[in-house]
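Progress narrative, Year 2. Work on dTDP-4-dehydrorhamnose 3,5-epimerase from Humitalea rosea advanced from sequence curation to structure prediction during this period.
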Amino acid sequence: MRFESTEIDGLFGLRLDWHGDARGAFARLFCRETFAAQGLAGDFVQASLSVSTTAGTLRGMHFQRAPHAEAKLVRCVRGAIHDVIADLRPDSPTKGRWQAFELRQDGDLALYIPKGCAHGFQTLVDDCEVLYQMDTAYAPGFADGLRHDDPALGITWPRPVTVISDKDRSWPPFRPPGAVG
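Result:
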């Protein structure tokens, strides 16, 4: 795998190195030693699979507050998604910025998302599955989010939202660090 820098500090695209033969193809999704050499969290303690049946479904923007903030490794294993990461870290040089990526089952891109960033995605086709690996176990009392359409972030999505949970629709507005009121 090859690590690619992005516009957000600490967020990396991981390009898979596919090896093919008559049987098909093989690529390594994760290697603890390779992650450690990059200075990235590599002790994943939890894995989850998200399944969305309808194109236009939006999930996010989610994160966990400290001390249970989590780094994530995300890959689309079925279908195609528009994946968005927003930097919420108060001391980050890229705080308040977001970046989007297209992840596809037939693509070679996965994302390493650092602690302190919100994550969400919209399905581009029907029947999508997204695999997550996290370095911190889910802590319900520290789960948080922000609205996908918050004007303070200005995230653009590629299509109208067809399905969204009530919880994701009702997150409070984004408040940049140091905001008053």
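The chain has one domain: 2-169. The mean pLDDT is 93.
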